[in-house]
Amino acid sequence: MTSESSDLLAPLDLAFWSIESAEHPMHLGALGVFAADSPSAAAHAADLLAARAPTVPGLGMRIRHVLLPPGGAERKPAPGFDPLDHVHLAPPAADFHAAAGALMQRPLDRDRPPWEAHVLPAADGASFAVLFKFHHALADGLRALTLAAGVMDPMELPPAREPRPVAGASPWWQALDPRRLPDAVGSALSGARSAAGDVGRALDIGVSVARATWGVQSCDALTSRPTGTRQTAGVALDLDDVHRVRKAAGGTVNDVLIAVVAGALRRWLDERGDSSEGVVPRALVPVSRRRPRTAHPQGNRLSGYLVRLPVDDPDPLARLRAVRTAMDRNKDAGPARGAGAVALLADHVLPIGHRVGGPAVAHAARLLFDILVTSVPLPSLGLRLAGCPLTEVYPFAPLARGHALAVAVSTYRGRVHYGLVADAAAVPDLDLLARSLGAELAALVAVCERAQGVAGDRSGLVPGARPT
User: Is the four-CA dihedral 364, 368, 372, 376 of positive or negative sign?
Assistant: First the structure.
């Protein structure tokens, strides 16, 4: 068991803990599929997960309310922590996603460390899956990845570099030198200016949030009354196809992945009989503010960008250009400004405000954005559990109150994995949306190839050839 001390929840962590309800549990998920090397592979994996969990920092910590500050909460070691309360071997499953949906709708036990791992053997014995669930108060996407990687088989990584000594470092007593007083005063003034800047950014975010609610063009298919039900689906696409589109049309890989979501929503709405005409929903795209060797490795370090998805545009390349323009505009402003940075407002709320106002904030999510589209990076190295290779991994995001759908995406080993979570009552045809993602990427590849072919014909060159 690792030795850990208690620490107060940061404001954003406390916000996620406070807005949870039975109908809208605030946990992240990831469904990893592994190739089994024996009929007992799933049971062996479950045993390993239970054995390794006590050694991973954070997995033995539960969240408890504190008296001071009023309304606050802290992570503290759980007495009698038993990993068998968190690691479960399920009966054989014919459909991993059907099993995952039923498990994702169950809230985590708030009296225990808020995480679970469910091992799902395949009915045919050829594979097994593990569904990880981590409460958002415990981890954001990057932190959840770190926690899950801690129970995987060890990987051989390059040796860590020794820290370099700081050139010209002074003994501690020189800090008392009166000649250094101007530096101390300058530092204090800089801190005051920073605090004033924080207030200015908070006001800027608030104004941007108000503006983002003007002229909203969403659709009923993306909203729902809370039913507490969940359904998941996933699709794995070729990363090379994404790069083909990026190289031909410009932008970043993330721009292409978001544009694929916009096009898939258009296809899905039209095929299910809803019209995509005039639909321009607001997508919240979370942005990690986590840095390597951060002083606060646990919890959330998040901001976000707000992007209007051009679902109503019939041209795939025009949709990509619109997404690219919106993302560039957000990046120019930075993750600390704009309506997407609403998560940063949590830092300006007292703990008691989070405790009392949590339900109201949960209801307000529908006013702030229409759909969550998040990306969770994975290591390029192959992961294994019990010696079995990870072949697929589908990330799942929490579903906010009033929302029918959340989209998460990860790239792993040359494949792009889209993980979809939906209210099962509001979106019974989630598989149709998953198929639409593949169809949209194929359409983008085709239109880029046609555009390159026309350009090659006009220049008298074979597409892709270079003049000599």
Answer: negative
Cα 460 to its chain centre, rounded Å, is 46
The answer to whether residues 83 and 53 touch, using CB atoms and an 8 Å cutoff, is yes
Strand order, beta sheet including 73-77: 7-8, 73-77, 61-65
Name, in order, each residue with C-beta under 8 angstroms of 397's C-beta and a sequence gap of 6 or more.
Answer: 28, 372, 374, 406, 407, 408, 419, 421
Token pair belonging to 385: 């559990």
* Residue pLDDT tens, the chain, 468 long: 556 777 889 888 888 898 888 888 999 999 999 999 999 999 999 999 999 999 999 999 999 999 888 889 999 999 999 999 999 999 999 999 999 999 999 999 999 999 999 999 999 999 999 999 999 999 887 788 888 989 999 875 444 444 433 333 333 233 334 444 444 344 333 443 443 444 454 445 444 554 545 555 678 888 888 888 999 999 999 999 999 999 999 999 999 999 999 999 999 999 999 989 999 999 999 887 655 444 345 566 667 888 999 999 999 999 999 999 999 998 888 765 554 544 555 565 677 776 666 666 666 667 788 999 999 888 777 899 999 999 999 999 999 888 999 999 999 999 999 999 999 999 999 999 999 999 999 999 999 998 877 555 544 433 333 332
In CATH terms, 7-149 corresponds, of 1.10.150.130, 3.30.559.10, 3.50.50.60, 3.10.129.10, to: 3.30.559.10
Query: Residue ranges per domain, the chain?
Result: 7-149, 200-458
Looking at the structure, give the CATH architecture of the domain made up of residues 200-458: 2-Layer Sandwich (3.30)
395 half-sphere exposure, CB direction, 13 A CA radius: 25
